[in-house]
Design a protein that fits this description.
The chain is α/β, with parallel strands linked by helices and 381 residues long. The chain is built from 12 helices and 10 strands. A 10-stranded mixed beta sheet has the order 1-2-3-5-4-6-7-8-10-9, with helices on both faces. α6 packs across α7. The longest helix has 17 residues. It is globular and about 55 Å long. The structure holds beta-D-galactopyranuronic acid. Beta-D-galactopyranuronic acid binds next to loops.
């Protein structure tokens, strides 16, 4: 995928920096009424605004949750490596819901864990196979000293405008037309990530106090929303998340609200569509989404050919979250710093960024950066 590919696919898309309109970002710390409140109340206000205008209302925590290990496979490629196929059964006020995920760990060790929202790799359907892909390089992750819990996003909510309500949303939403602030699929996927973490809390092979959430593209948007909603994740990784992920909406570069709601309105609450062509009227922008994970560690990653996701807008999303990190007493990248060069990962305090050479993808090189960031972060504890 190249600039030309994306430009041809979406005629009229702005992929030239000089066409970015003048814009003013809504402030991170100042409340809507202009007051300077303490961060916890501003944070709560931002959370309400993202729920109301972008992702929809939260899905409640289950009344109860049960996990069974339904199958265990020893890995040939990693000494002591095991794959547990886990079945999660939850009781919600509106009914029961269940899904499976895979836990890769190493016997008799307690390890920090990456929770991954998988929107791509079908290899997971056959956990016995050890031909791990670069998208989910299980051996690389285990060899680096971590465990991996990976679930298929579509098992929580089908990734399809006609069927997305057939998963967990079927037990929380009434039938009939959606409300303007009804949860979309991203909120459902994010709920799934938190339930996976619930089940890991007492798992003997997992140290759930050191948990990362990671996703690519639509999964990257979901990772940021999960970081915002679930403070148990101490490392939040958004790979090529783009529009309604790390990229600033007001830049209108690459994928804009009209593009994303035109193809994927069901990822969001219906309210988001109102802002297509009216980006400056959105009461929030995506730097404030990143701010909701502060002071925990946030890693935003782009790829230079992935202009549809607006690499520069993703960097600026991270950099402009700075006031939240600052008020919480941690260092972070800031808007007056230059965007890091290609293939030059940069970490400042609780934030990391890289722009990789290449296209829209999650690669072993990307994983290498995330694994070493996690090692540094958690070894300091
Ligand atoms: C694209 C979409 C992006 C991104 C991507 C993906 O087609 O426009 O927002 O989410 O799909 O998830 O791979």
């Amino acid at each position: 995928a190249t600039i030309q590919h994306y430009a041809a696919r979406r005629p009229g898309t702005l992929v030239r920096e000089e066409l970015v309109p003048d814009y003013e970002l809504p402030p991170v710390l100042t409340s809507q009424d202009g007051s300077q409140t303490a961060w916890p109340s501003r944070r709560a206000e931002l959370m309400r605004l993202f729920r109301e205008h972008v992702y929809g209302q939260a899905i409640p925590k289950p009344a109860s949750l049960k996990t069974d290990s339904i199958r265990q496979t020893k890995l040939q490629s990693v000494p002591g490596g095991v794959c547990h196929e886990q079945r999660v059964m939850v009781e919600m006020p509106g009914g029961q819901f269940s899904f499976n995920y895979l836990l890769y760990a190493v016997e008799s060790e307690q390890r920090p864990v990456f929770v991954m929202i998988n929107n791509r790799d079908p290899a997971l359907a056959a956990p016995d196979g050890e031909n791990f892909s670069s998208f989910i390089p299980v051996k690389q992750i285990l060899d680096a000293g971590f465990a991996l819990a990976v679930f298929q996003h579509s098992d929580i909510a089908p990734d399809n405008g006609e069927h997305f309500r057939e998963g967990v949303l079927s037990v929380v939403l009434p039938s009939g037309p959606r409300q303007p602030n009804s949860p979309g699929a991203i909120t459902a996927w994010s709920w799934g990530a938190s339930r996976v973490l619930d089940t890991l809390a007492n798992h003997p092979l997992i140290d759930a106090s050191r948990a990362a959430i990671i996703g690519h593209s639509r999964g990257g948007k979901t990772a940021l929303w999960t970081g915002a909603q679930d403070p148990r994740f101490s490392l939040v990784i958004s790979n090529n998340s783009g529009s309604q992920g790390a990229a600033l909406t007001r830049r209108q570069f690459g994928e804009r609200i009209d593009n994303i709601t035109g193809s994927f309105d069901y990822w969001f609450c219906p309210n988001l569509q109102k802002y297509a062509g009216h980006e400056s009227e959105l009461p929030i922008d995506q730097h404030q989404l990143i701010a909701l994970s502060a002071p925990r560690h946030v890693y935003v990653a782009s790829a230079d050919e992935d202009l549809w996701a607006d690499p520069r807008g993703e960097w600026l999303g991270l950099a402009n979250a700075h006031p939240a990190f600052k008020v919480l007493g941690v260092e972070s990248v800031a808007p007056d710093m230059p965007m890091p060069g290609l293939d030059e990962p940069q970490t400042v305090g609780a934030t990391s960024y890289h722009a990789r050479t290449g296209g829209h993808n999650l690669t072993e090189w990307d994983w290498g950066q995330y694994l070493s960031t996690a090692s540094q972060l958690w070894n300091e504890d």
